[in-house]
Amino acid sequence: MKKHLTRKEKGDKLEAYVAGKLIEMGDKYARPTRGSGNKSEIGDVYSSLYYVECKHRDKKNIVIPISVIDKLKKKIPINTDKIPIWVYENIEGRKFVIIEAENFFY
């Protein structure tokens, strides 16, 4: 019988996945943040390239509240080259990376 993961376990799994993919892309310092976005680190995954916020949703469709985007953006230092991204996973396990157009077309 398949074990149902808790919300925290799903989030931890997604954060580990994202960190692993960033490492594969050459970001050797990528790792889930301590405390998953606690006060001492910004976002859920530390990266030398991005500020990463991860969200798992137990629904097929993904809706991204602007408040989630604004919350991460308010924490980002003014003079940084890092780009904020949001990684969402739906109930089917499909993963999506969201990036604002101004950063994508930079």
Would you mind describing this structure in some detail?
The protein has 106 residues and is an alpha+beta fold. The chain has one domain (7-104): Trna Endonuclease, Chain: A, domain 1. 30% of the residues lie in helices and 21% in strands. It has three helices and five strands; from the N terminus they run αβββαββα. A five-stranded mixed β-sheet has the order 1-2-3-4-5, with helices on both faces. Strand 2 and strand 3 (50-56) form a beta hairpin. The longest helix has 18 residues, at 7-24. The chain is globular and about 45 Å long. The protein starts with 6 loop residues before the first helix and ends with a helix. The mean pLDDT is 91.
Q: What is the helix tally?
A: 3
Name given to the CATH architecture: 3-Layer(aba) Sandwich
Shape: globular
Number of strands: 5
Record the strand order, biggest sheet: 1-2-3-4-5
How are helices and strands ordered from N to C? HEEEHEEH
Oligomer: single chain
Please give the radius of gyration in angstroms: 14 Å
Topology-level CATH name:
Trna Endonuclease, Chain: A, domain 1
Helix and strand content put the structural class at: alpha+beta
**In this structure, how is the largest beta sheet organized?**
5 strands, mixed
Strand content: 15-25%
- How much helical structure, as a percent, in the residues? 25-40%
Would you tell me the overall average pLDDT? Answer: 91
Distance between the terminal alpha carbons, to the nearest Å?
A: 47 Å
Tally of separate domains: 1
Residue stretches low in confidence (pLDDT < 50, at least 5 long) are: none
Tell me, what is the CATH class?
Alpha Beta
